[in-house]
Amino acid sequence: MISMKLLGIHHVAIIASDYARSRRFYVEVLGLDVIAEHYREARDSWKLDLRVDERTQIELFSFPSPPARASRPEACGLRHLALRVSDLDAAVAHLQAHGVAVEPIRVDEFTERRFTFFADPDDLPLELYED
């Protein structure tokens, strides 16, 4: 039997309703580095590749009139995107200084790690998880 070995997650793709607003959020607020940015004329769409860490990227797309997310947070499909941070308190303060609403910090009952949730400009649920 042939088996496959996954090496990790390469990227997560996000479709934004307002490309410029989401680009500012992911680049200026979250501080992600731009790897590449392309306008795809045939699709009237932008594609922005952002570096999360040495191995992981976020692809930010725009499309004309994308449908809204079904509901949150318990809709079938991707529930949220969790990002690792070393200092949760500093990360929360940074987001709040940029006007981003952040839920109260919680502690995972199984791992005893601290985490919190916030949202991107399209209300995509994002999590900060203290590593």
CATH second-level architecture of the largest domain: Roll
User: What would the average pLDDT be, to the nearest integer?
Assistant: 91
CATH class of the largest domain: Alpha Beta
Query: Unreliable segments (pLDDT under 50, ≥5 consecutive)?
Result: none
Oligomer: single chain
Order of helices and strands: EHEEEEHEEE
Gross morphology is globular
CATH topology of the largest domain: 2,3-Dihydroxybiphenyl 1,2-Dioxygenase, domain 1
Beginning-to-end CA distance, first to last residue = 36 Å
Give a description of the structure.
There is one protein chain. This protein is of the alpha/beta class and 131 residues long. The protein folds into 2 domains: 1-65, 2,3-Dihydroxybiphenyl 1,2-Dioxygenase, domain 1 (Roll); 79-131, 2,3-Dihydroxybiphenyl 1,2-Dioxygenase, domain 1, CATH 3.10.180.10. The protein is 16% helix and 35% strand. It has 2 helices and 8 strands. β6 and β7 form a beta hairpin. It is globular and about 50 Å long. The mean pLDDT is 91.
